[in-house]
Inverse folding.
């Protein structure tokens, strides 16, 4: 396997700085136990029978402590989705509903792409600042359902069409509102409704 | 990396995490065959100890969050242990693991609706003027700029420039041809450099 030694674009300063990024923190010690547990659950590792090496006993103790910890947290505030290691307290999440003004004029394809780019780069900035963010643009139209087809419900926003949404993490409503305020949507004449997502 | 201002190129190459000697390869093969024979925890632990640090740090850079890196390490090992028997050693074990980690994270981004991460910055490549290389690179700035790249570009920089994988390995890993890997890297470097220099026009 021949190594490549040509980095035609990079200066030594850049190359060295990039290579240095490979250095960093060690994985948390309890990650080994968590990984072993996952492998056992998936039937990918034989459960050790009989003689148990000392390290295994230590790992089991760590795993048991972790499980108790998870149980304690799980009962109180719900497990954080997406991590099976050490559930942290769930971060509050907020939905940002983006409404377009009733008199919003139709954008050309190029204008729309520019707008989407602008929102995307805003969302990247939000994420770079350490918040979770996801979201999508909605197509216009759709259907509003009511008790029966003969009596459809009214769109709740009276002329303001829901154009998209974001879901962000923030410590509280004020912080979420501050994030929403920085969204380019308001500058373009739209409105944003910020709502806490209920924890169930 | 001690030494003068200009590091010796060979020393730099040898310091690349993906740089491997024949001994490394033999050791990996031995550990893998031991694990496949016994499927026991002791054998797995040897494999884990050898690769987990690099895998964890790779995932940390890829995902940007410790909790995602934790989850990624576990998921990567689960998937690796499922298909280890079919691993053909066309690449180093560390490269193969990085590939599994990348595929996992792409799925996660899709699942979580992180569309900005998945889209390539085709637009950016045109928007950024060619920026001059910086005189000095601050680690924090570099970390931030890397985290802000779209996923495809971040993968290219991480695999090639940070971890020293070859274009041939990357091409095999990401199922693309070498030319694509090279052009992806050069676009990624251009965007990264522009961000470091604040060169948005």
């Amino acid at each position: 396997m021949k190594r490549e030694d040509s980095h035609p674009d990079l200066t030594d300063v850049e190359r060295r700085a990039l290579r240095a990024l490979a250095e960093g923190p060690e994985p948390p010690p309890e990650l080994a136990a968590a990984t072993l547990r996952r492998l056992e659950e998936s039937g990918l590792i034989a459960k050790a029978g009989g003689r148990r090496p000392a390290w295994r006993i230590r790992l089991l103790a760590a795993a048991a402590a972790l499980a108790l910890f998870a149980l304690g947290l799980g009962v109180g505030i719900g497990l954080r989705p997406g991590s099976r290691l050490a559930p942290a307290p769930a971060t509050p999440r907020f939905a940002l509903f983006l409404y377009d003004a009733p008199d919003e004029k139709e954008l050309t394809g190029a204008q729309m792409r520019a707008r989407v780019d602008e929102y995307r780069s805003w969302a990247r900035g939000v994420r770079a600042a350490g918040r979770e963010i996801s979201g999508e643009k909605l197509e216009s139209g759709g259907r509003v359902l009511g008790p029966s087809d003969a009596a459809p419900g009214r769109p709740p926003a009276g002329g303001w069409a829901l154009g998209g949404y974001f879901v962000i993490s923030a410590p509280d409503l004020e912080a979420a509102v501050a994030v929403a305020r920085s969204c380019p949507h308001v500058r373009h004449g739209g409105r944003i409704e910020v709502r806490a997502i209920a924890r169930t | 990396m001690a030494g003068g201002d200009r590091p010796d190129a060979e020393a730099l190459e040898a310091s690349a995490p993906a740089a491997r000697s024949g001994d490394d390869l033999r050791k990996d093969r031995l550990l893998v065959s031991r694990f496949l024979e016994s499927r026991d925890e002791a054998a797995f632990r040897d494999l884990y100890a050898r690769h987990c640090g690099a895998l964890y740090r790779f995932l940390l850079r890829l995902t940007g969050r410790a909790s995602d890196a934790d989850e990624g390490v576990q998921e990567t090992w689960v998937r690796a242990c499922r298909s280890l028997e079919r691993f053909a050693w066309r690449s180093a074990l560390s490269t193969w693991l990085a590939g599994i980690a990348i595929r996992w994270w792409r799925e996660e981004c899709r699942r979580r609706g992180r569309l900005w991460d998945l889209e390539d910055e085709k637009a950016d490549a045109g928007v950024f003027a060619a920026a001059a290389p910086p005189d000095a690179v601050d680690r924090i700035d570099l970390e931030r700029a890397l985290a802000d790249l779209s996923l495809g570009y971040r993968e290219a920089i991480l695999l090639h420039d940070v971890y020293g994988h070859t274009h041939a390995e990357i091409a095999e890993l990401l199922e693309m041809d070498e030319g694509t890997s090279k052009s992806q890297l050069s676009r990624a470097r251009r965007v990264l450099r522009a961000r470091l220099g604040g060169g948005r026009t």
